[in-house]
Design a protein that fits this description.
alpha+beta, 3 strands, 18% strand, disordered C terminus
Length: 95
């Protein structure tokens, strides 16, 4: 259910993502949503966002030279590489 919720949030955004949509996408029975997420929709969506963040962090950890990301042109930054270090993450200019 959490992965399905993360997918729906990515596609639609959090506001229009309902528990019924997540249940339909995941194929899970209705009772399981209330059993595993007693905090309701808010708890499920928070878990989905945490799941997505953990996924991205794992991908970044596997990248040996950082991950290429595009900073929107209106920010005037151009392409940068996000580099993970022992002390944190920083952006450096892509060559």
């Amino acid at each position: 259910m959490v992965a399905s919720a993360a997918l729906l949030i990515r596609e639609r955004g959090a506001q229009p993502t309902a528990i019924a949509d997540v249940l339909k996408e995941s194929g899970a029975p209705r009772g399981s949503a209330y059993h595993y997420f007693p905090g309701g929709r808010t708890q499920l969506l928070c878990e989905a966002v945490d799941y997505a963040a953990d996924y991205v962090a794992a991908k970044m950890a596997k990248a040996s030279n950082g991950m290429r990301i595009m900073i929107p042109p209106y920010m005037g930054q151009g392409e940068r590489i996000l580099v993970s270090t022992e002390t944190g993450e920083y952006l450096r200019r892509a060559d």
